[in-house]
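Researcher: Here's my situation. A collaborator sent me these components and asked whether they could plausibly form a single complex. I don't have experimental data yet, so a predicted model of the whole assembly would be a useful starting point for our discussion.
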Amino acid sequence: MPMIQSHEIFKIFGNKPERGVERLRSGATRDDLRKDGLTPAVMDASFDVGEGEIFVVMGLSGSGKSTLIRMVNGLLMPTAGSMSVAGEDITRLRGKDLRRVRREKVSMVFQHFALLPHRTVGENAAYGLKVQGLNRSEREKKADVALQLVGLEGWGGSLPGELSGGMRQRVGLARALAAETDVMLMDEAFSALDPLIRREMQDQLVDLQHQLGKTILFITHDLNEAMRLGDRIAMMRDGRIVQIGTTEQILNDPANDYVAQFVQDVDRTRVLTASAIMEAPVALLGSEQGPRAAHRLLRENQLSSLMVVGRDKTLHGIVHEHEVAEAVQQGTDDLDGVLRSATTVRLDTTLSDLISAAAESPAALAVVDEHGKLRGVVPRVTLLNALGDPTTVVEHVGPEQKVMA
Amino acid sequence: MSVPTSQFEETGVPRVPVGDGIEAVFDWVNENLGAFFDLVSDAVSGATETLADVLNAPTPLILVVLFAALAWLVKNWKFGVVSFIGLAFIISVDQWENAMTTLALVLVATVIALVIAVPLGLAAARSDSVSNAVRPVMDLMQTMPAFVWLVPMVTLFSIGVGPGVVATIIFALPPGVRLTELGIRQVDAEVVEAGHAFGSSPGQILRGIQLPLALPTIMAGVNQVIMLALSMAVIAGLVGAGGLGGAVTSSISQLDIGLGFEAGLSVVALAIYLDRTTAAVGGGAATRARRISGALGRILGRSGTTAAPVPAGSRT
């Protein structure tokens, strides 16, 4: 069951906003409603966020993303539609019940940090716990743990005004983590930070997410940030979600011109990963096979090298054509003399890192998962293609499609 | 008041009997609620006179030293010295007793004004309709010439300290309301939102976020209330409220230049003392609260964290 479930959510500002929903459903445009003094901020937004997922909502200012995130914890109530968080239907809750959900289920990190200037870093980090009614010593213990997680150990006694912007947002993050909610909402959380610090915080957030398994809804106007953080991304424009997909889906298969225009400036080498461009190997050599079999496979497929794998697809290494030919001439029966170590990369290695790996390796790169199993290969030509013309990037190539080399 | 029938012919604008109407209202109030106003009058004049007696009980010089010490505490030793000289001057011109009577009147009026003003300001900050309703009333109270308030007060409370205090409250109230509203409205909306996002109740947000962050502005309002109360307290001498105002009034009726200036300069000395003291308390309140809570945290070491390498007194 998804942690956040947004179903046909509408938010319209103005007098008697309900009347706008029906009109929008029956095809009225945003401008039609504006003439009547209604301002539709979010229209027909549906999405699910799975447990432990980082879901990024990306859009420019005025696209309705800030309104959308505020409906997840009920800071704004939707005009129509339903919104559930961790199994609680936010749209039906009021007052006390809503506050309970905010205390226990969903915390938030703000663009301009929103710290209390008259309270210490430790007290700020413990704010949610104080509201939850924990006693002082428990609050301080948990706040300390949270500060440690974000790398602010020892700063608990300082005032926010004494900290730099990046450190202040770490306090904001610690405050959300300390509340120990399953869901975290992050509203342009890194947008006010300078680029280097922002990068650092993004990496830290990903680390924390791996460590703690939080479900994160992240709002940003920065596509690079969206692609770096997001397991999936929702692109918003003028109050509507125009596409939801993984980074690769959005880059390679933009739903419309708006998205396409948006992604054309993305630095693909930093966003695309090996898993997006790798190919199924044309041929593989079993580790129990000998040089003769290798020689035949190389000739048949016009390859200069072959990956050698075990029965369970564990990568053993690589053999090269000239060495195999020598071994065949000498009449050797096993591969031991010719097996070389292959250059391996991970599924999530970015293109920019693939380039440096490819520079060191004459043969194709082997893409392996965390268990050392071969998942695909990246020949140099494929890598060059991915860098060049986006339309040649393919997600999957069957063995029957030969790679021209 | 007779209505001249010729007015309409002369000006083209009919005579609106505002004065008659207001007079009628006050007459009615006086007749029907007279007992209530007597009670109010007795209460405020009782409080004021008791406080004045307390202030006049010790030897004047001892009190001056105490006041100067307070000035030193909230600001610095220089201001302590200035306060001592200013207040000692009041003794030397033989206006101490009057000054303490006026101070008592100012303090009582200020406390009552704030008890009304701060909640009203909070309500106005929360609701635009309350704000819109309150604003013109505040304008009326503040811009109506101060003397005008004295006449109906005498009607309702007769002569004495009571009408003086009530007129002072009316005159001094508006900045308390306005600056409370302003202070609360100026609190960073995102911080208030953070309070909501973590599940705080409106009361927790008011106590934990809005009031502390609005405190400097609210304290500026308190300072304004005190200063306006002092200026009105002197005018209230006209209706027999006594104190420095009484001395000024009698100097006017006797054309006594000397007494007038002695009392007037005493008002100045008292005003400077009250203004600088409350301004120092207000401006420093937030900073000091932070510093104290921070220092306590460090000393107690309860949080188990070491203090940041920042000088303790640094301002942010």
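Model: Some features of this prediction you could bring to your collaborator: Chain A has two domains: 4-105+181-266, 275-392. The longest helix of chain A spans residues 195-212.
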